[in-house]
Amino acid sequence: MASLLLVAVAGLPVAALSGSTTAVIGKGKKVDVEFTLTLDDGSTVQSNVGGPPLAFVAGEGQIISGLEAALQGKAARERVKVRIPPDQAYGPVDPKKVQEVPLDKIPEDSRKVGTLLSAQGFDGPIRVAEVRPDVVVLDFNHPLAGKALTFDVFVLSIN
User: Fold this and answer.
1) Based on the domain organization, do 36 and 78 belong to the same domain?
2) For residue 145, what are the contacts with CB-CB under 8 A and spacing of at least 6?
């Protein structure tokens, strides 16, 4: 009963009086996670399970917004499985980011559908979407644009 009286007098929550210092994910916290990323068809896109953790600082835009929101307030050793819609991940597919390029501007060994290219001044992969007799169609959308992403995340540590 004394602690209840103390809470009422001091205006402090019980957790503050009990000495609880459980860290939770919040802005500025350094977070290490283990994750597996899958698509709606069940295919695994990426996983770091058994490897080095993914490290990021919460609230600094280092991970996609939907995942950041889903992890907010979670504690170390907590598991989160969340499906992120495209608008909170890499956005919808933008038809304006698909361009035709003359065939002779693309190296011959790169003229295959699915080939990933890079270009100076562009931050991200460029995918060969189609090869025609006179042009190569390049897709500058992120490869995961337009896709819902399911993350199975285990929070390893928070500092």
Assistant:
1) yes
2) 86, 90, 91, 92, 93, 94
